[in-house]
């Protein structure tokens, strides 16, 4: 619903000026800027924690976040914001990364919390959440996709660079949806902790995947997927 034709009321078209006015109105609704979306998976965390507040980053996880922060800073980009999941491991990862990006505002959201986006096809034997989880989490994660992954607003003049710190399931689902791949295939991808996935959204709505789960900036002994 961000295609220019979807943003104007064709019924109000002036019959006298016709095509000229329509072209002018369409041009006014067209995006001009490119959005760069950096999806960061949280760092390694304590799997033994029962509640979310107990699932804090491990010492290695904190090291991973430091490495990710340095990598993002080294890109030399002017980041506009960091949007992060409200879960503890994502929040802690964000706090460490943000040290390397001073002045970039941070926004917490429940939409990006981990969950079961859609039943994978083919099914897997090692991961079988309750069916109700797909209905509860799936709608929320789809809402996150629609809310955050779209072409730039027509009023945006310059290209933007945004960071989203969240979870493997959420990132994999978003990548499938953004590339118009069957979302049921999300579980076929694997993402390391602290990895960087880079999506580019052009003004015409086309999406390109620059990197998927990049951790080439980490020493091999620091790489995990837990």
TrEMBL record:
Key words of the record? Hydrolase, Membrane, Mitochondrion, Mitochondrion outer membrane, Necrosis
Q: What is its EC number?
A: 3.1.3.16
| Catalyzed chemical reaction(s) | O-phospho-L-seryl-[protein] + H2O = L-seryl-[protein] + phosphate; O-phospho-L-threonyl-[protein] + H2O = L-threonyl-[protein] + phosphate
List the InterPro entries.
His_Pase_superF_clade-1, His_PPase_superfam, Mito_Ser/Thr_phosphatase
Q: What GO CC terms are in its UniProt record?
A: mitochondrial outer membrane
List the CDD domains.
Answer: HP_PGM_like (cd07067)
A GO molecular function for this record? protein serine/threonine phosphatase activity
Q: What is this protein called?
A: Serine/threonine-protein phosphatase PGAM5, mitochondrial
The gene coding this protein: Pgam5
């Amino acid at each position: 619903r961000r295609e220019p034709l979807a943003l104007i009321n064709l019924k109000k078209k002036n019959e006298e000026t016709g095509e000229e006015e329509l072209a002018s109105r369409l041009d006014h609704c067209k995006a001009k800027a490119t959005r760069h979306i950096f999806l960061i998976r949280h760092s390694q965390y304590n799997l033994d924690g029962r509640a979310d507040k107990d699932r804090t980053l491990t010492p290695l996880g904190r090291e991973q976040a430091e490495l990710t922060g340095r990598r993002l800073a080294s890109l030399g980009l002017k980041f506009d914001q960091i949007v992060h999941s409200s879960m503890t491991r994502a929040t802690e990862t964000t706090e460490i990364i943000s040290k390397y990006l001073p002045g970039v505002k941070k926004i917490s959201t429940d939409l990006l919390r981990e969950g079961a986006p859609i039943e994978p096809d083919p099914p897997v034997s090692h991961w079988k959440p309750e069916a109700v989880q797909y209905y509860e989490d799936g709608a929320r994660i789809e809402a996150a996709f629609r809310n955050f992954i779209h072409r730039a607003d027509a009023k945006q003049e310059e290209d933007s660079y945004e960071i989203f710190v969240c979870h493997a399931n959420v990132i994999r689902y978003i990548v499938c949806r953004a590339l118009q791949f069957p979302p049921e295939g999300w579980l076929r991808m694997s993402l390391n902790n602290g990895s960087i996935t880079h999506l580019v959204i052009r003004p015409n709505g086309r999406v390109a995947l620059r990197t998927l789960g990049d951790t080439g900036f980490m020493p091999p002994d620091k790489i995990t997927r837990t």
